[in-house]
Specification:
The complex is a heterodimer of chains A (about 140) and B (about 140).
Chain A (H helix, E strand, L loop, with lengths): L3 H6 L2 E2 L2 H42 L3 H41 L2 H34 L1
Helix pairs in contact in A: 2-3, 3-4
Chain B lengths: L3 H5 L4 E2 L1 H43 L9 H36 L2 H38 L1
The chains are: A mainly alpha (about 140), B mainly alpha (about 140).
């Protein structure tokens, strides 16, 4: 008979219901990540292009410095978003592979990438919240 | 950690290594979800307060844009609601995952995976809509 201690010490087995959820998650995550990477490149490029056009229109140094700062900010936001999407994509690919082939190593790697994606997102949210608070307070 | 036993099995396992990934991911996801719900609340309040001002500005003077102001408020409202739904699903996923890891409850684990799938489903729908609007806007910009 299994005791409470036995249940806690045994590694959980991923059953068919969870496998089904994980497979669907991997397909959706792959789609979201692909769109995210494409979107990060597209928006950063478009923002950069628009801002450079604006920069060429202004001759004053004051405006130039402000716009250069905005360009750097937009590029950094795009880069961070690209990195998050890349981690999500890796998570999705490894998860799909692990579910299809029952590869435990790929399964572990998938959750490592998942953690990295959420950690990056969390750090980005902290920075964003701090910036919002600074703008609100000063 | 991978053990030779696990590698030879026909099933996948949640081992100690994955549990530690779950713990950290769950904490981050919970933080992101709570911050997201707060932001969506701020966006909701802003849609009623700032939205009115934007509508007033767009419908006054020589611009007289007609429905543009209303559209701005509607867009802000929709964004707030959609973002709240997404954050809510993420919160449920994170909460269930952390409970599952802490109490070794299989039911909570299955539920957390279901919520993870739903989170990505909502994300996929929102991203598709946003992407289509972005492409449509860019094409409109290019034509005019």
């Amino acid at each position: 008979m299994e005791t409470q201690q036995d249940i806690l010490s045994i590694d959980w087995q991923v059953d068919d219901e969870v496998k089904n959820y994980l497979y669907q998650t991997s397909v959706l995550a792959k789609f979201v990540a692909t769109l995210g990477m494409f979107f990060a490149v597209l928006t950063t490029g478009k923002t950069g292009f628009e801002l450079v056009k604006m920069l060429l229109g202004y001759k004053e140094i004051f405006f130039s410095n402000y716009i250069i700062g905005t360009i750097i900010g937009a590029l950094m936001a795009g880069a961070v978003y690209f990195v998050i999407s890349l981690f999500t994509f890796r998570f999705a690919v490894k998860l799909q592979l692990s579910v299809k082939t029952t590869d435990q190593r790929a399964f572990n790697t998938a959750w490592h990438h998942f953690k990295m994606a959420y950690r990056s997102m969390g750090i980005m949210f902290i920075i964003y919240t701090a910036l919002m608070l600074m703008i609100f307070l000063f | 950690m991978d053990t030779p036993g696990n590698l030879l099995q026909n099933n996948l396992y949640i081992d100690e290594g994955i549990e530690s990934h779950f713990k950290e991911s769950g904490k981050w996801a919970k933080y992101i979800a709570i911050t997201g719900m707060l932001f969506s609340g701020i966006a909701l309040v802003a849609s009623f307060t700032l939205g009115g001002r934007i509508e007033g500005a767009l419908n006054s003077g020589f611009i007289m844009s007609g429905t543009a102001g209303f559209m701005v408020i509607l867009a802000m409202l929709l964004f707030a609601v959609a973002y709240f739904i997404l954050s809510h699903y993420m919160y449920r996923f994170a909460n269930k995952l952390l409970v599952a890891v802490d109490t070794s409850d299989r039911y909570e684990f299955v539920e957390s995976m279901r919520h993870l799938k739903n989170t990505y489903k909502v994300m996929a729908i929102l991203f598709s809509i946003y992407f289509l609007l972005f492409i449509g806007g860019s094409i409109a910009d290019f034509i005019w």
